[in-house]
Amino acid sequence: MPKLQINSLRLHTDFTELAQIGHTANGGISRVALSNEDLEARAWFANQIEEAGFFVRDDEVGNLSGVLPSKAKHAQTLLIGSHLDTVPNGGQYDGAIGVLAGLECMRAISDAGIDLPFHLEVISFTDEEGWWQSFFGSMGLTGTLKSHHINDAQQDNAAFRAALYRAGILVSEVDRAIRPMDDLCGYLELHIEQSARLEQARKNIGVITGVVGRSAYVYTFYGEGTSAATTHVNDRRDALQGAALFITKMHALIAEEYPDGIVNCGNIEVQPGTFNVIPAEARLRVECRHQDRTTLLEIESRLVEMAHTIADTYRLSVKVEEMYKREVAIMDEHLMTLIEGICDEQHLSHQRMVSYAGHDAQILSPFTPTAMIFIPSKDGISHNPREYTEWHDVENGANVLLSTILRLASEKV
Known about the structure:
- 36% of the residues lie in helices and 23% in strands.
- It is α/β, with parallel strands linked by helices.
- Helix 8 (239-257) packs antiparallel against helix 9 (293-313).
- The longest helix is centred in the last third of the chain and has 22 residues, at 391-412.
C-alpha cells in the first residue's frame, strides 16, 4: 500500500464547522444525545458523507455511518469512529475527533483510488456519553442492548422514549440494529486521552491496552428524621452523618490500598432535606473503576462491608443496590503491536496505557479485534469548555489511524 497522509486543512475545516453546532457562550459544546443539537450534528455528518461520495448508513438505534465499499467478494467491514454527542457544556474534541478523523481517512483512501480488501465504515455511535443510556448505539450494534437498558434510563423514561421517537428510533425495532459479528474484521477508535499522562510523559501517542472495568451502586443510609433542635447529639440517628463518613473512608481506602483504582460519589439525595430536621435518608450513587476484574470485585466488597460497619456504629441501616457493571475490556495484541510499529516509523513517541474512561471500544472488544489510539489532552482537562488538544497531535493521531487501516489492508491482500 502507498504511504498516505490525511488532508489536515480539510479535517480542520470539518472540526471547525462541527464545533458551531451546540456551541455555548463560554466556548463549550452541548450536544447531548438525541437533542436538537445532536440531530443537527447528525444531519451535518450525513451531508459530509454524501459530499465525499460515500454511502450513508443508519440503523435502528440511530448509529450513523459512511461506507467506502470494497470490490472484494465476501469482504468484511473494518469499523472506525467514535461519537458526536457530548456532555452538557463539554468540549470540542471528545468523540468528535475520532469520527472526523475516520471520515478524513476514508476520503484520503478514496482520493488515492485504493480498493481495500474490506469495506471501510466510519461510524458515529448513539449516546456514548450516557445522557440517556451509556453506549446505546454500540450495545445496539453488538446485540448487548436489553430492554432494561431502555427502561432504566438515566433521565425520565418517558422523556427517553419521546427523544428516541423524535430521532426516528422505535423501541420495538432496536434488535434489527444487531450486526453479525462475523461481518466485522475489527474496530479502531482515535480519541483524546482525557487525562494528563501522555502530556506529563511527553509522549505523542497512547496505545491502549484495555478499558477499566466499572461498576455503579446506590447506597441508601436510613436513620430517623426527628427534630434537629430537640434531639440530643448522642440520641441522633443521622443518615447523612453515616453517608458523609462513608464517602470520606471510601476515598481513604482507595488512596491507601488501591492507588490504581478510582471511586467517585457524584450524587447525594437527602430526605426530608430541610435544615431543622435530622436526615432520615441519604442516597448516594457511587462508581468504582479498576483495570483488574478481581481487584474491582474486592473493592466493591470492601465498600459494602464498610457501609454496614458505619451503619451499625451510628444505629442506621443501609441498602446497597447495583446500578450497572462493565467488565474490563482488553484490546487486541496484534493491533497494539502494529500501531506501535507505525508510531516508530513515523518517529512518534508512544506508550502503552489503560483507559480509565469508558468508550464504545469496550463494547466492541469482546466481539471483534479492537484498538484505541490516544492523543494528548492539554492539562488532562475534558468534559469541559477548556478541553484542548494541539492540532499537530490531532494530525499525528489521524495519520497513525490512516496507516493502521492501510497496514491491515496489506495483511489481507
